[in-house]
Every structure is written in C-alpha cells, then in structure tokens.
Design brief:
The structure is a single chain. By secondary structure, this protein is of the alpha/beta class. Helix 11 links the parallel strand 8 and strand 9. The chain has 2 domains: 156 residues, Nitrogenase molybdenum iron protein domain (Rossmann fold, 3-Layer(aba) Sandwich), CATH 3.40.50; 122 residues, Rossmann fold (3-Layer(aba) Sandwich). The longest helix is centred in the middle third of the chain and has 18 residues. The strands form 2 sheets. Strands 3-2-1-4-5 form a 5-stranded parallel sheet, with helices on both faces. Strands 7-6-8-9 form a 4-stranded parallel sheet. The protein is elongated.
Length: 378
Amino acid sequence: MTTGAPLRPAWSARAGGDTGGLVRGARESTGGTAFPPSRKAARQPRFRKGAGRGVVALAAFLTASCIPQSSATSPFFGQLSGHGSSGSAGSGLAQPTIVSLNPCTDAILAEVADPAQVLAISHYSHDLRSSSMSAAKARRFSATRGTVEEVLALKPTLVLGSTFTDPASASAYRHLGVRLERIGMASTIEQNYAQIRQIAALAGQSARGEALIGRIQAALAAAAPPAGARPIPAVVWQSGGMVPGDDTLIADLLRRTGFSNFAADRGLGQADLLPLERMLADPPALILVAGHSAETGQASGIGGDDRVLSHPALAALGATRRVSFPANLLYCGGPTLIAAAGRLAAVRNQTLPGTAGSTSVSGNAAGTRRNGSPVTAR
C-alpha cells in the first residue's frame, strides 16, 4: 500500500504527524494516514512572516560553525555531489544516507537500504501501536521525532517525508541543501509498487526494490481465493466504528484475497462511521475488528475496551463472524502487505459456510467461551 484508513484521527496530519499508509486519514479531504491515539505531535519550526530568510541564514551559520572545515561540502550546503540518490553499488558514488519521517517509508527503507544508509527512522516505528515492522527490526535503527534540528544533526543527504511535511520544514531543508523527497499515499497495490521502486532507486538499491515487490506478489498469489469463489462481505471496523473507503489499499487487498468491502457497497466512504445500530440491523458475514486490543497486543477480548467494537449486543449476530485484525496491518504498504495478505487468507479459509456465531481463527469451532463471550482470534 503509499506509502490510507479510517484509523485514529489523533495521528493524522493535523496532529503534526508525517504520514502515509494503507487507508487515508480520518476525514482528511486530501487523504493521509490516521494512526493510533496518544501521539504527541513533533514540534515543527515556525518562521515568522518576513523573518524566514534571516532564520534560515542564522541556522545555516550555526550549523556551519559546528562542522569541521574538511566537511565544507556537507550536504547541508550546495549540491548533493557524490552523496546524491543516484549512487549505487559499483557506481563510484557514495551511497546516500537517509532519514525517514514516517512508519510507512521506514518499513520499505529498512527492506531495501543498507543498514548504514539509514541514519534514523521515525519514532512511530519504535511504538508497537503504530509500527509497520517488528520491534526487533525497528530497534536496529535510531529514531527521530522529525524536527528539523534533529534531522540536521544527523547530516543526511536525503530525507523521506510525505505530502504533509510542514512547509516551513521543507523550506529549511531546501535552504540548507538537504534533499527532501515527499512520498505520497497509494490507494492501490500497483501504486505502492511504484513507491517501492521510487524509494529503492533513491537509496541506490533498485534491485532490492524489485526483490521486495516479488515477495509481495508471491504472497498475494498464495493468498488469492480459489477460482470461482464468491467474495465474502466483510467490514473492517476500527475504533469508534470507522470504516475504510473503497479507494484505499486495504480495500484493494480485501478484493484480492476473496472479500468485498461491505461498508463501501452500502455507500459509506473513507473514515465514515458505521454505527452499532446499523451494524446490528444489517450485518455482514464477517467483521474484521481493528480496535485497541489489536493495537496494544493486550488480550482483552475482541474490540478491547472500545465501547462500540466490543458491545455485548454484537453477540446476537449469530451468522456473523467477528475476528481481530491487527491494526498495524492497516497502515502501510511495502512488507506490511505480505503479513496482511497472509492474515486475510487465513481468516477466509476458516470462514466456512453455515458457521454460526463468532468463531476463532485459531480453530475453535464453537467460537465462544463457556460464559458466552466471543473468542478473540489470534
């Protein structure tokens, strides 16, 4: 996917996050990934009108004073020279050094670049609630909150931002000679392939980008439904009752793995709310619950502590399965698509015709505990 979802609006561009992702941000007309709550926005520099040039000049002077004379051709100033993004193994040019500012580009960059090229990833990737890579992999890299000061201190030759990168920050990078590439959002898997190729080329590692795409294509082929199988109507139900629109990565992935977007088929768009009452009156065959328990990993029942997703009335939906779907598989494309496709295929393969009640993906045929509460799929 991007590299969008009716996820949590607290992590949207309005909160200062540098975003991308599987599904577009909550109620953002231009899109953007809305990530889990409890995200404090990274402070971005704000230049007073008319004072921008002076501030940039001062910043450049102060930065230069900390750089040895032998580094006079630092990427902060002038052209990128041999540090440019066209460098590749055996080309004679130094590989670019890169800072990534959002978890979607983090995950792709970690797959295609040499570890030494990655100076820092975003702090979101160090948080399991918003990371699109494993904790062990994320901890191999330093993290930054994305302020210009932090990024400049790392002396990168390339910064991977998004279409929501703050204009003042973009201006500062430009004046200080640091190349900023804004990676937008992809609404289809094919668009995400293009972004993988873009990031890999910027890192001088095009072959690794093609290898990653090959792995995703193999995972999608393995997760494809049997020929002639009828799509299973499914709702991706997120915290507060939000649902993804049809022009999103997760919707494309649902179609490719044997599901139909039940909410979109009933006229609901990106980040619209599907109220509990409407869900009860017109339920789908499957509810993929991406709530707090999926984000935190805490086994507190399907829907976690979300009052909508875990409402007791949902137990009355005898013909509807409810299974947990990890929320961090909704955010981004790249390697996330491999895990998301596998998860959806597993759910599909265990959604049997005539199954009553909420069932467990782990194989509990009854699908309920003795007290009647639904089993959380694992």
